[in-house]
Amino acid sequence: MFTPSQADVRRFFCSVYAKSRAGQALEAIETIAAQWMDEHPEYAADFCDVDAALAAMGKPEPGRENPFLHLSMHLSISEQCSIDQPRGIRQAVELLTHRRNSLHQAHHEVMESLGRMLQESQTTGRAPDGGAYVADIQRRATRD
After folding, report:
1. Contact, 14 vs 47, CB < 8 A?
2. pTM for the structure as a whole
3. Which letter, b or e, does each residue of 41-67 get, where b requires 16 or more Cβ atoms within 10 Å of its Cβ?
4. What is the H or E stretch that residue 108 is in?
């Protein structure tokens, strides 16, 4: 399994941004990343300079979301849905998307569930609970 470093993630998104803007051919995962980047034009300045992106590691801006983490979560959720892993995630996200009338909004809500699952896993030292994660998304999709 490939576990990219924080620098690898930043290089990846900056590379995708440059290739996308230059009209170069993108690999499948890069295409998905570019689509999510297009949904977040507010992050464009973060992706246009790889050296600045690397220099900014470990220096969070108060009150500002990490664009590299945010886009990584979009990619993770997209990949989870494409392979339906954990089982049921695809249907839960589709239901939430329909309910919110927006895949983008649904992803942002799923990010909250994903973050909660990962935090709980780190806190307890147990493996992430995919069933609880999917159930949380299903609850979001079915409540008013």
Report:
1. yes
2. 0.90
3. eebeebbeebeebeeeeeeeeeeeebb
4. helix 103-124
